[in-house]
Amino acid sequence: MTADAAPSNPVASTQQRYTAVAIALHWAIALMIIGLIAIGWIMDGMKPGPDQFAIIQLHKSFGITVLLLSVARIAWRLMNPPPAEPPMPKWQSLASKAVHILFYILIIAMPLTGWIMASASADAPTRYFNLVDIRLPGIPTLDADTRHGLEEGFEQVHSNLAWVIVGLLVLHVAGALKHHFIDKDGLIARMAPGLFGRTAGPPDDGQGAVWAFGAAALVFAAVAGLSFTTATPVATDDAPASEDVAHSNAPVWAVDYGKSKLGFRFIYMGTPYDGTFPEWSAQIQLDTDADSNEHIPADGYVRVAIPVGKLSTGEQYFDDSLGQGDWFDVAKYPEAVFEVKGGIYKLDERNYEATGVLRIKGADTPVRLPFTLDIAGTTATMHGEVTLRRLDLGVGAATTTEPAGDAEWVGNDVTVVIDIVATRQ
Ligand code: HEM
Ligand code: HEM
Known about the structure:
By secondary structure, the protein is of the alpha+beta class. The protein has two domains: 6-230, Fumarate Reductase Cytochrome B subunit (Up-down Bundle); 252-424, Beta Barrel (Lipocalin), CATH 2.40.128. It has helices spanning 10-14, 20-44, 50-79, 90-120, 144-183, 187-191, 209-230, 316-322; strands at residues 127-128, 132-133, 252-255, 261-268, 271-276, 281-286, 293-298, 300-307, 335-346, 351-360, 363-376, 379-389, 413-424. It has an eight-stranded antiparallel β-barrel with strand order 3-6-8-9-10-11-12-13. The chain has a two-stranded antiparallel sheet with strand order 1-2. The protein is elongated, with a radius of gyration of 31 Å. The structure holds protoporphyrin IX containing FE (2 copies). The site of one protoporphyrin IX containing FE has 20 residues, from α2, α4, α5 and α6. One protoporphyrin IX containing FE binds next to α2, α4, α5 and α6.
């Protein structure tokens, strides 16, 4: 800035400035919007994956913050008229008013379009600074096609509106600089007291802060509350058999969960990843003394219940995404269940095969699980692996299974790895 800036300018000090609340909101919102556009463009060029995910989450949280502050700002503006503008030609006054009105529309429309897009997305949840789920109520429950359409459409609008903001910003800043350097009327100081010259204080501090910020807080609380209630797990009426019923007369085996592990392996963008289900419960009965016979099952029964929402891959990005509707839809189907229906066959002293049904997202799929069993005294150590095709199970249908440009992909084959140590009761 030049030394002849406003301080000594008598015109400037007769200018009245905006209220402190208006000034604080103007700059908080302006800085965030400029940052959000820059980050938006950066993340657009990033490869999908955990890093991009983390940045998008931050983008969404700051974007929602802009929305909340904008609600407060507009309410404040309605209750507190701005100071009279400095003398200027009519067209300039009209042009600046037009830019301001468009800005007021955009600081609401921009985050709103992003929010609709994010709420329609099946990829990841939208949590406000990782605290509360704030997807717009109603949208996550729409059918997949509608959501996909909404996501694509609003992504377009969101991306184009960014350019409109940039265009307006150029006009807005050019106007401010013209006032400062050419008209020397101290206009910038009205919005930045002290920095660009002195101004007269506002007639009072303004009023209605409680209403303005209260309105913003209410909007937020309503959305967070509603999105929380709509995400509450829905009980499935066709719940699988109860755990307490005895299904066999064979000996019961009690699982030592500390020594047992239920894991899975999958390929994400060419890299193998391991995951575990840290919480599960198994009910196991098996007559291990039966004669080997690959045609007649041994006496036995197995039922494993897995709360899928608890899965862990060591990568927050996967854990969050896998709970979503397109993947395990844990809000609706909190549990996956494997239950032996066709019997457990003892092929030889060590090799067995369980035939049963895997229920994922309410749909049953027949599964053959080959496993080995090593018995020492009353302790049995079991190891089994089965490879499932996730698309056949309706898991992650919208995500491709092979590389296609820059898009994320997750291999179709997912291997479930089961290691159980159990003692005979
Ligand atoms: C995306 C960012 C920005 C947005 C959305 C924005 C929005 C607005 C709006 C809506 C007003 C009108 C206030 C009212 O009278 O109701 C305003 C005023 C103002 N803005 Fe910005 N602004 C942004 C960035 C900037 C920047 C970077 C500057 C720096 C020069 C600036 C300088 C000003 C000044 C000096 C005023 C007061 C104009 C007057 O006294 O009439 N703004 N801004
Ligand atoms: C004033 C606030 C905001 C601004 C200025 C802004 C700006 C941007 C920009 C410039 C992009 C890049 C667009 C492109 O790819 O060309 C972007 C992308 C994105 N924004 Fe925002 N955004 C805002 C608020 C939000 C909010 C509130 C959300 C969600 C709650 C959101 C979600 C997203 C998402 C998910 C993308 C990535 C789209 C994709 O490439 O898949 N944004 N944003």
